[in-house]
Amino acid sequence: MSMILFACVVRVRDGLPLSASTDFHLDQDFLECRKKLKALSSILTCYPDRGTANERDLRIHFHSSGDVACMGICNSSYPAVMAFCFLDELQWEFATSYDAASVGLASRPYAFLEFDNVIQKVKSRFNYTSDAQTKFNLEKIREELRLHPPALVKLEELEMRNGMVNGHAELHVEPAPAYRMQPVSALGILSLVLNIMCGALNLIRGVHLAEYSFQEDHKGIGNVIAFLLPFAACFLSCYLYLFYSSARKIKVFVLFVTVCLCNFYLYGLRNVWQILFHIGVACLSSHQILSRQVVEKHSDFGGV
User: Which pTM was predicted?
Assistant: First the structure.
């Protein structure tokens, strides 16, 4: 059956894998093709934006745009125009989900693990269904391929480029840059202390209420959860302030909303001033997390 077997998103400048589909093919030809794809991903800067490599009954296709490339492994019988249409759609989905700064700051493999689900959905749609939008894109991609045919990558040349000896590739991959956060500010320290204090208060109240609820009845379980969720949110906020994490804005928003909703739910067990204090601490913490920027650490050769 002709189909897309594997797909991934990599950073063009060094081949760092950002996300990939979860596939469990044990076929030896496929596993060998995966190795060739990994080797190819590290030298994409040497090729045009579209290319194809043949490996026995399989094909590797890639489409680069900016600092991101989408790559896939298909059966040789799978139409090239369909494969590039798939990669083009994957490229668009990734570009609408992450900006260039996030891609540039990625320092570990598979930093955008949550995008795996998107890859799986798009891959399944191209493998098992067809719709009008896909047909429209096919015509567009077919015309683009007619005007600018994809480069044909010879895997023998790929092996020489990567210094493959006895089937073992010595990949010359540019190391991912290291990053550090800006120095902790006085307000940042204050937000950490207040977060720890609020977290401790929530934990103490939650544990005491849980003991009472389990002894008497289970009607107060909602209040217990409303205390424990902000406890977790407070300490996660401390982590986000101290260490860099991708999608910080979304995470901060979720934590802030969690604190607000739980405190509104606890109205009656807490008075208005207590609720305002906890929300105020969450506001200060959110502001400090978002205002603390990432600073790239450049190698200082010869420096002290």
Answer: 0.53
